[in-house]
Every structure is written in structure tokens, then in C-alpha cells.
Amino acid sequence: MANVPRTLKVLSIDAKGLNIPGKRHAALREFTSLHADVVLMQETHFSHARPPSFKNHKYPTGYFSNTAAGKVCGTAVLFSRSTPFSNSTSLLDPAGRYTFVKGQIGAQWYTFVSVYLPNRQQHSCSRRSIARMADFQEGILVVGGNLNLPLDTRLDTSRGVTSTPHTIFCRTRLALQSLRLMDCWRSLFPSTRDYTYYSAPHQLYTRLDYIFLPFGSMHLLESAAIGPMTWSDHCPVLITLASPLARPREKLWRLNESLLTDPQIKEGLHDTLRNYFTENDTPDCSPQIIWETHK
């Protein structure tokens, strides 16, 4: 059977805590409905000592960075059952700020990163994370996470301004540029305003959640979207990548022609056709309609 290319869908979402069972079930249902192959999560808030189970038959494999400081931070990378991820190696942050996982999908190496920056001194944390990332990564790098920072204050905030010092913006962008990381959604929508988080106390919409690809891998990007806010107080970001995966082409029905060599089947077909023409040869039905219907 012929195969056709299959894309790889990567989703990034800030969960804002997953210690409530109903919220974990809602999250997994949404990942399934969006057909996400890889999920990059932030703020899982799992306890390091006794983390809850977060998997089902659709997403049986996960890597989690939980902190001993309590139910704060926490990052994770999940893989769907249909994604043949193998030969994996992970690097987990004891503070729960990042989860790095690398391995093969098909014959291609990938490195998936989920990162959660603090709401202050983002540039310091991003610089340390990217330095470790540079040593760890192999193959195609995909980075998703909540930077707690709008990278473009003019477009990524509803007011066009922010109280974050300008030096933090500059140094965070420099850290990203050191690996030539590009904002997938912004690269496809260079002048569009859309947001992933709403702060009720400040009455401010901002885009804090991102997925990045290195410049050399941007040709693999097929689509990027910001989804609606549902079970979390952040919107998911979803990208679609060209991948080495393949899926079977949909089947088209064809007659098994070997059946026509069976004498009993041939005789049954002849009887059916004879009966069809006999029963439908009536004065109110023209020969052309009978013939076309027969075909």
C-alpha cells in the first residue's frame, strides 16, 4: 500500500497546576482532540516526593522536572502513542524550570525542550538554560514554553507597553539569538496581534507562550496557531512540522477480479442481470435510464 507524508504536531501549554484529577483528565482529552504528537508543558506544580500519574493510553510516555521546593514550577514533555520516539535521553532541572529530551523519530534526531522562565530576571534564567541546551541538543531543536515576557511589547501586549525593564528584553532576545531561535507563530504572522494570557488585575492581554525553531529548521514549519483558552488560564500554541513519518494512503475500494473466475459467482451475476432487465423493462422507464442505472 502506498504511503503519504505525515506531519508532526507539537503543542506547548502553561498548565497553571495539574494536581486536580479533573484538570489532568481535561488536559489529556484536549491533547487527544488536537492530535498532538508531542506536548511541552509548563507549571505542572507536581510534588517532587509524590507526583501524581499523568498519562493514559494515548500519551503513555512522559518526562517530568519537579522541584523539591513544593508545588511550584515544573515542566514536562509528553509523547503520544503514535509517535515512534526511541533512543531517548533526558536532562531534568532540579528546580523544575526546564525539561530536555532528545531521541529519534524514524531516522531523524530531535531535541524537545519545555522551559518555564520566572517572572523576574528572565534573561538570567534563559541564558543558563540555553547554555545547557547548546551542550545537550542533537538534531532538530524544538523549544516551547512560557517566557513570562512579551518579546515585542508593541505587538504582544494589548496596551503596547510593559513595565519590564528594556535591558531584560534585550538580553533575553540575545540569549535566543545565540541558538538562532525563531518565534514560529510570529514568523508566519509578522504583524498580527494575538495573545495567550489575560491578567485580570492588570486588565492586560499578553503573548507569553512560544514555540521556537532554529533558523536552519524553519523550512520544516507548515503551520502555527494559538488555540482558545479552555482548561488552563493560558492558551495553547500548536505548530505543525514536516517529518520523516509516513502513514498509509487511504484505501480505495476495488473489485477483487479473481472472483470473476469462479463459475458459481459468474452464474449468480448473470442471473442478477437478467432479473434486473426483466423487472425494470416497463413502459414508464426509458431504455437509456435502465442501461445507465445498470452500469
Automatic annotation (TrEMBL):
<feature type="site" description="Transition state stabilizer">
    <location>
        <position position="148"/>
    </location>
</feature>
<feature type="domain" description="Endonuclease/exonuclease/phosphatase">
    <location>
        <begin position="25"/>
        <end position="234"/>
    </location>
</feature>
<dbReference type="InterPro" id="IPR005135">
    <property type="entry name" value="Endo/exonuclease/phosphatase"/>
</dbReference>
<keyword id="KW-0227">DNA damage</keyword>
<dbReference type="InterPro" id="IPR004808">
    <property type="entry name" value="AP_endonuc_1"/>
</dbReference>
<feature type="binding site">
    <location>
        <position position="148"/>
    </location>
    <ligand>
        <name>Mg(2+)</name>
    </ligand>
</feature>
<keyword id="KW-0460">Magnesium</keyword>
<feature type="binding site">
    <location>
        <position position="234"/>
    </location>
    <ligand>
        <name>Mg(2+)</name>
    </ligand>
</feature>
<dbReference type="Pfam" id="PF03372">
    <property type="entry name" value="Exo_endo_phos"/>
</dbReference>
<feature type="site" description="Interaction with DNA substrate">
    <location>
        <position position="234"/>
    </location>
</feature>
<keyword id="KW-0234">DNA repair</keyword>
<dbReference type="GO" id="GO:0008311">
    <property type="term" value="F:double-stranded DNA 3'-5' DNA exonuclease activity"/>
</dbReference>
<dbReference type="GO" id="GO:0046872">
    <property type="term" value="F:metal ion binding"/>
</dbReference>
<keyword id="KW-0479">Metal-binding</keyword>
<dbReference type="GO" id="GO:0005634">
    <property type="term" value="C:nucleus"/>
</dbReference>
<protein>
    <recommendedName>
        <fullName>exodeoxyribonuclease III</fullName>
        <ecNumber>3.1.11.2</ecNumber>
    </recommendedName>
</protein>
<feature type="binding site">
    <location>
        <position position="43"/>
    </location>
    <ligand>
        <name>Mg(2+)</name>
    </ligand>
</feature>
<dbReference type="InterPro" id="IPR036691">
    <property type="entry name" value="Endo/exonu/phosph_ase_sf"/>
</dbReference>
<keyword id="KW-0464">Manganese</keyword>
<dbReference type="GO" id="GO:0008081">
    <property type="term" value="F:phosphoric diester hydrolase activity"/>
</dbReference>
<feature type="binding site">
    <location>
        <position position="233"/>
    </location>
    <ligand>
        <name>Mg(2+)</name>
    </ligand>
</feature>
<comment type="similarity">
    <text>Belongs to the DNA repair enzymes AP/ExoA family.</text>
</comment>
<dbReference type="GO" id="GO:0003906">
    <property type="term" value="F:DNA-(apurinic or apyrimidinic site) endonuclease activity"/>
</dbReference>
<keyword id="KW-0378">Hydrolase</keyword>
<dbReference type="GO" id="GO:0006284">
    <property type="term" value="P:base-excision repair"/>
</dbReference>
<feature type="site" description="Important for catalytic activity">
    <location>
        <position position="209"/>
    </location>
</feature>
